[in-house]
Amino acid sequence: MKVNIPFVYWVHYKKPRQPSWSHSEIASEATFDIEDVAAADAPVVHVVSDDSMSDGEDSYWGGGRNPKTVSKFHVPGGDCVIRKHAGQYYASRFPVAEIATWRDNPEYDPFAVKMSLRGDEAEHGRELDTAFHGRKRSVSLEDFHAKEGDVKKFTSDRATTDRYFNHLVGQFAVIDGVLYEKVDEPVVSLVVQSGGKLSAYIEEVSSPVLTHFRKGDWRGNANERIRFGLDEFDRAMKVAARIAVANKLTLAIHANVSQVSAAEVRFRGDHEYLFSAASGVASQLTKAVAYMPEKVGLAVLGAANLLAIHDRMTPAALQAVRKMEAELRVYFAGDHSAPPSDDYHYDYDLRQAFGSGWRWKLDRLTDAISHWDARDDVGLEWFDDALDALPIYDYPKRAYELTSQLDIDKVATMWKGGMPHELEYFDPGASVLVVVEDFEDHVPYAALIYDRSDLTLAPQVVKNGDHPESETAEVLANAFVQSAKADVGHSLSVVPARRAFRP
What we know:
Strand order of the largest sheet: 3-10-11-6-5-4-16
Number of strands: 21
Radius of gyration: 27 Å
Strand content: 25-35%
Oligomer: single chain
Number of helices: 12
Distance between the termini: 73 Å
Structural class: alpha+beta
């Protein structure tokens, strides 16, 4: 479908006897082709809303301002209709006939993004800003020439703007006369923010800043966020109320889910909440083990080691995390030299070792374990059936097992040509899925599907395009599978001569 979209681009010029460049904004309009999708081919799967506005709130725990744009699910009228077509989610915007109207409204303009320019395109700027609102100094090209007259040098960003805009409109579709934008799966996100506030949003499962179009971002940091699938909205609201009361936070509910198709939900956030909480405690208290009893210190180091090696929550890591939390609870409940986070009259070395905020982080870990034990995965993870083997490394390759639908979706985003059929319809009850990837850039070489009833059988190999390393991926994957359920040693399994910990 051909759609007219107004936009602004820059021209750069030098007038006679003028040593430096001048710049001017030019208002224009062009016709772009946007995919037209039949409504019957894109059924409605969810209806959500997010009434949050653009903000520049400080990070509650980390400090510093980080302005955010309006949520991608904040639309005129409130309700954002989510459709699914060919495996892609689309979020409604407004009738396509109203594009020109909403282009001048920064709250609802879906074409306002920032894109980094290549070096050969960045002579006069490093990025292209496609916002339309606030460009009141822009004039037509005819008016510009009439005003400026003869110029000595002239260059225009029009060709670059056209090229990037054509790329941008590929993110949209027209369905039943309404403009829709491609989005990742929507999820419910609870975020602790500055000013003692806990807010609930509808956000994408993957951070928007990972895309070429820098538009929006998650609120908060990893240690400030708990996320849920859309079908867990009621659970999310109960958790939000409990956390707000327990921590004396003001609750701000911006999110709402008025329709959800449970069969189209693929996300569960229990893994990431527990992993984030456990990593926060383990990484902070590793410096303090010299002040702890040996049993407590080894529990902290054991959990820190397994979390770092696995880089995800696994049965072995979960067991170590539970042990760490239990030992720390007993330790901090006793008469020990652990400084309270709000008291600076204790020994300087202790303050440096324990750091600040450890009490809140430990409470968060206890909550995350309870949250995990109350989870309802409804088939979206097969954690309890994991092989529980340590990842196998052969620089730069890493082989590891996928234990949730979220794991599969993350791998699929890096797969050439989209999600392979074999991964999309993977059966965790009958099979084990192992991925071999470059552990630095997370590009998968291949996925290997093993028969769960007999791991010695040759796996089905799904290659990621024609990647040259895909041919050798099976060797590393087989080594990983053969190590499953084995008593694999790690850096804490062999401890040299026992050394006394300071009590």
